[in-house]
């Protein structure tokens, strides 16, 4: 029995019952694939169900405000996924009359859709013979064939794509692709793979040579950058604050935040109140307290945000127009969402 037959046989006995698999509607498959990039199924499921309930068609998603989409995405991270999702939904609804492209070649032209997602939609929805290559696939193939080429190198990306394509069962491309993804997620897991009960145990190089912990190989990560954030959480006498939308191409584009002073290191109260940003923002008398006694370290893929939340109380402030009672309506980074939850608990 060859590789694809063994894999599909395993899948038919062990596949996960996932809501997007009940239909070959490309909208649902696309939505699930975008959500599950950088996100585990267990975490993404609730978001997927909420999205499909709120936006049952691509037209519903296209007609939504971006802030609504970002608010519903809150907690999933990598917010560019949500912005691209919304952009592409509008393109499909308005320019393509709601009809998804049916080929890999056309799908990959859509914003936010790369090789993996285009291959997944083309194969699952339209049975086009395109192999998917994601983290699960890299892991299965590198272990089974004993490949030590780094999966995040240009040579590795090319090598694994070619290999994946040669293994694809072109008569049932969608089933094969879902099989290898499930096999990597459930059986050939990153930690503690189930090698003893693996249908490939008698022919897997990593199992034979005790290499499962070494494979797949990744090139060294990009150096992590430390940043120091000081959020000024304003509270006026009439219970108002300032929240502003983050612009530009940096992190959290389109999300809202309290006024921010970014410093070179952790600062104290004296350094805060003598900063140009503070003096400009608060012409009148204020009462200041540090909410978190130890800085909160919020870890993103290539940067660590060492964060302090300063509670700044003042009688009045013309720029403070957001009511505290309405603050939950705004899409905010999970770092600020967690602070708000803790702050409101302590305030009650």
Automatic annotation (TrEMBL):
Single biological process term from Gene Ontology: base-excision repair
EC number(s) per entry: 3.2.2.31
GO molecular function: 4 iron, 4 sulfur cluster binding; 8-oxo-7,8-dihydroguanine DNA N-glycosylase activity; adenine/guanine mispair binding; metal ion binding; oxidized purine DNA binding; purine-specific mismatch base pair DNA N-glycosylase activity
Catalyzed reaction equations: Hydrolyzes free adenine bases from 7,8-dihydro-8-oxoguanine:adenine mismatched double-stranded DNA, leaving an apurinic site
Gene3D superfamilies, sorted: Helix-hairpin-Helix base-excision DNA repair enzymes (C-terminal), Hypothetical protein, domain 2, Nucleoside Triphosphate Pyrophosphohydrolase
Recorded superkingdom: Bacteria
SUPFAM superfamilies associated with the record: DNA-glycosylase, Nudix
PROSITE patterns: ENDONUCLEASE_III_1
Cofactor: [4Fe-4S] cluster
Cofactor: binding details: Binds 1 [4Fe-4S] cluster.
Transmembrane segments: none
UniProt entry keywords in alphabetical sequence: 4Fe-4S, DNA damage, DNA repair, Glycosidase, Hydrolase, Iron, Iron-sulfur, Metal-binding
Residue ranges constituting the HhH-GPD domain according to the UniProt record: 35-186
PANTHER family for this protein: ADENINE DNA GLYCOSYLASE
Protein role: Adenine glycosylase active on G-A mispairs. MutY also corrects error-prone DNA synthesis past GO lesions which are due to the oxidatively damaged form of guanine: 7,8-dihydro-8-oxoguanine (8-oxo-dGTP).
Protein name (Swiss-Prot/TrEMBL): Adenine DNA glycosylase
Record organism: Polaribacter vadi
């Amino acid at each position: 029995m060859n590789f694809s037959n063994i894999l599909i046989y395993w899948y038919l006995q062990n596949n996960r019952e996932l809501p997007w698999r009940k239909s070959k509607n490309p909208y649902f498959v696309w939505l699930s694939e975008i959500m599950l990039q950088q996100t585990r199924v267990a975490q993404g499921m609730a978001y997927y169900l909420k999205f499909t309930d709120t936006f049952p068609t691509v037209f519903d998603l296209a007609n939504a405000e971006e802030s609504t989409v970002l608010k519903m995405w809150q907690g999933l991270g990598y917010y560019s996924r949500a912005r691209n999702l919304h952009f592409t939904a509008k393109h499909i609804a308005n320019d393509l009359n709601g009809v998804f492209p049916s080929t890999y070649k056309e799908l990959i032209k859509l914003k936010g859709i790369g090789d993996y997602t285009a291959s997944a939609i083309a194969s699952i929805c339209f049975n086009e013979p395109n192999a998917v290559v994601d983290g699960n696939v890299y892991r299965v193939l590198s272990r089974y064939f004993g490949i030590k080429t780094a999966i995040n190198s240009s040579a590795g990306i090319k090598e694994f794509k070619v290999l994946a394509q040669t293994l694809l069962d072109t008569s049932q491309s969608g089933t094969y692709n879902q099989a290898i993804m499930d096999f990597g997620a459930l059986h050939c897991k990153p930690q503690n793979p189930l090698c003893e009960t693996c249908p490939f145990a008698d022919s897997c190089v990593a199992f034979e040579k005790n290499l499962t912990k070494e494979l797949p190989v990744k090139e060294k990560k990009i150096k992590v950058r430390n940043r120091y954030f000081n959020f000024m959480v304003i509270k006026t006498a009439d219970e108002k604050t300032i929240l502003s939308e983050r612009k530009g191409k940096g992190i959290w584009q389109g999300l809202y935040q309290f006024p921010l002073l970014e410093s070179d290191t952790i600062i104290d109260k004296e350094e805060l109140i003598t900063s140009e940003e503070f003096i400009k923002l608060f012409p009148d008398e204020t009462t200041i307290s540090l909410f978190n006694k130890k800085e909160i370290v919020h870890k993103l893929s290539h940067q660590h945000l060492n964060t302090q939340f300063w509670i700044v109380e003042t009688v009045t402030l013309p720029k403070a127009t957001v009511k505290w009672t309405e603050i939950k309506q705004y899409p905010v980074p999970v770092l600020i969402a967690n602070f708000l939850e803790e702050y409101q608990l302590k305030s009650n």
